[in-house]
Amino acid sequence: MNTNLLTDRANPERWSLTKALRVIHLDASLLFGLLSLLGVGLMILFSAGNQEVALLVRQLIRIGTAFFGLVILANIHPDRMKDMAYWIYGAGLILLIAVLLVGEEGKGAQRWLNLGVVRFQPSELMKIAVPLLVAAYIAERPLPPTFSRLTVCFLMVVIPALLIAKQPDLGTALLIASSGLIVIFLSGISWKLIISFLLAAASALPVLWYAMHDYQRQRVLTFLNPESDPLGSGYHIIQSKIAIGSGGLSGRGWLEGTQSQLAFLPERSTDFIFSVIAEEFGLVGVGLLLLLYLAIAGRGLYIASQAQSSFARLLAGSISLTFLVYVFVNVGMVTGLLPVVGVPLPLVSYGGTSMVTLLAGFGILMSIHTHRRMMTS
Amino acid sequence: MSTRFVLKDHVNESRLVNDRLIFSAIFAGILFTVLMARLAILQVVDHEHFDVLSNKNRVDIEPLPPQRGLIYDRNGVVLAENIPTFSLELIPEKVIELDETLSELAALFSVSSEEITDITEKIKQQRRFRHVVIRERLTEQEVAIFSANRHRFPGVDVVGRLIRHYPHGALFAHTVGYVGRINEKDQARIDEKNYKGTLQIGKTGVEKYYEDLLHGQVGYQQVETNVQGRIVRELENEPSVSGQDLFLNLDIHLQRVASEALGDYNGSIVAMDPKTGGILAIVSKPDFDPNLFVSGISLKDYAVLRDSIDRPLFDRAIRGHYPPGSTLKPFVALAGLELGVVRKNTKTYCPGWYSLPGKDHSYRCWKAHGHGKVDLKQSLAQSCDVYYYDLAHVLGIDRLHNFLDLFGFGRRTGVDIPSESRGLSPSSEWKRSARNQVWYPGETLISGIGQGFNQTTPVQLAYATSLLAMRGINALPQVARGSRENANSELSLMPIKRDDSLPIVKTSNWQVIVDSMVEVTLGQRGTAKSVGKDFPFVVAGKTGTAQVFGIKQDEKYDVETLAKRLHDHALFMAFAPAENPEFVVVVVAENGGSGSKTAAPIARKMIDQYFGVATDEH
């Protein structure tokens, strides 16, 4: 029976890379997309990081580690993941509380937990655990979920999000909240409910506004409009917009961006790396990059649509869409459309922890796709 | 094994989720189109604008620090001003060889290697386009030297800055306070953004208390600079908002008289307007020159001030703990009247000593052979200790404590100078919790004459005196009178601060105490006759002589043999005119010996100055 997987229907005898990858539960199209993106990322990082080779080597080691995780997850059956959902979520929650109590500080926020050998950010675990648990819980019963089960789902999302927001890490909290809310949205809750929820949230805003102190309002205003604060967060945005705008249609060319190379652009190898791409490769370059992101997410959505259980469908859908949310928030942030919340550009920005979780997510997608029961068998 | 079977309609479910997936994909497509549109605007439509900004010129954002508000006395005499100075500053981003530049500058301006280490450290911590100060207060010669060598140091420049200056030096050292360089501790309590470009912050006194008001709001300018960092064009300018000017209640003439009158004594004088609580003069001696601190005091100068046995940096007016001595007696007498323990005419016989029933220990009156029969008025006029031993004994410490509490003893007055002390007004409860000891009856007697555990700050005593003067209507002491936004705007007065807990006392009782305090300055046997003599207004006062050094039962206090530092403190409190008080003064002269001989004449000079009466010396 299993040999079916190895034989191409049209050409039973021919060996193909796609089939070979299937044996180790990897999806060729997704893998190709990810590798292209990572390759582009390394190229940009070389430019943004002042052509420092050591930086590239460190990033490569991270990619290698993260890929190892991807392969392992791809080989775990989705049903096993579903079984473990509660445990993973519970462990993540305990670690989050531990971070608030005994965590280490870095850049003014408590995010890290020192486990002796490695430092670890429990909020990263929650990026997987939240959609995993919400999908597992919702899929236990027929869709769409009842109101009482929806309430439970909301708690599952809100509790870790609040704990992370308290660290404070607003960007991650928002991403985690959206990954859970996307699962709920995909589960088919009625539009009436969605709209009334949005209306309730919108009408709560003015109430909150009047309850705030003047200085709190001021903080919200600068958060929403950083350019009013050019000595603080506005500095990043002003420099970032100059970098992007001066790139023009075709860019200044690789390693030629003056804003980036002359170190005018802050955090250019991490959160603001998109501006480097825009300066050096222009509108054409960023257009192609955004298309690559859409293609990867599109493949993920296709995998979701082909999944054989509601659990897998919801989880795969959430992972793919959250990936796009990442991109949208980061690009929106560096172009001055959205407030600066500190979200990296997925798979391109320098930094280890998000790399591991992102690729782990794609490992889950591949597992979902390659563990389908074949109709032909 | 039974599991609850849930019926699921797989076909419908997958259709439901797939519909949502398609919706999401379309929505994501729209969002990404928005991103592309935004990028197209930046990169195509506005390309030239940004290209110019990025190309030949660079954009810098310079903070524009606000000008600190000035501080004036009540007559409009400047107590704290800003004077221009030049400092040598460096912009790390524009310096090509940092280490080399620093060592060459060090050679040219004799900057020590420790300072260089500090500067290097600072450069590492700051944004690379922020100014770092290498040397403050350049002399004209140093400016000239640098100008001649400027071409050797790209990124280094002489910058004109305003620096705080206190034209009256030590006269207002403790109260106005001083500003100094912002340190780590300061950084924790300020909005760092608002202090970009600001080098100094209020460290003590009014400068610290009203920091928010004096500092103002930072502005910024967005400028284009050329490669050398020189400004080519200004793109945007948000001007800074200067700090507000502060007007104090202090009167520089009175302050001068106070400082001179106290002379070489360590101690303090507080004068206030009892109607408003406005502090008219406040002196703490010894003092120091606050200008030393403005741009970083040298270690040597600081060590001298810090290690001096007289503790010149210590603000005695608000932090000095003194036993109130006999100045507490009017309040004890009032407690006796109010609580019905004594009456105006109650007489006590003073043989020169007092002992508790059934105890051997005798408590001495300051007058060894006694005052004989004294009523309340004479007990205050002559400051008879025995009268108050007896009164305190009958009142008991806790009733006494609760009554004194109404007058602010043992509590901060809330004066607008930071780090005020609380003083101490003892009670049996306090002794139990603070020392874990029971209260002894003998300690009540000592408390009754303002000795023992009693500790009062001069400002506290001035406030309590103003309550007596105003017959219970209170106005808490306040240094600042008002502020104004700028030189053209109106002065807005600060509200008079009042305490909620008014000491409620019968009108007639107030009058008995005031009359008795008048007897102190006018009576035949008053202890402060020097104050009442040849003066057009009626002054109410009370002397106090507070023991610093405990005298044993059978010893005699001998001025000759006792070291100066162990001499009694001399105290005097007064208000005038007695019937419509305008002026309250409290004098504490450390080791001054006697309240009537030392402190009262000092207070008289203050009263003369306030009421414009020429004294003999003038």
Average predicted local confidence, pLDDT of chain A: 85
CATH architecture of the largest domain in chain B: 3-Layer(aba) Sandwich
Q: What is the rounded Rg of chain B?
A: 34 Å
- C-alpha Rg of chain A (nearest Å): 22 Å
Query: Structural class, judged by helices and strands of chain A?
Result: mainly alpha
How much helix, percentage-wise, in residues of chain B?
25-40%
- Biggest sheet of chain A, in brief? 3 strands, antiparallel
What is the general shape of chain B?
elongated
Write down the overall geometry of chain A.
Answer: globular
* Gap from first CA to last CA of chain B: 112 Å
The ordered string of helix (H) and strand (E) elements of chain A is HHHHHEEEHHHHHHHHHH
Name the CATH superfamily classification of the largest domain in chain B: DD-peptidase/beta-lactamase superfamily
| Adjacency order of strands in the biggest sheet of chain A | 1-2-3
Find the count of extended strands of chain A (DSSP E, 2+ residues). 3
**Contiguous runs where pLDDT drops below 50 for at least 5 residues of chain B:** 1-5
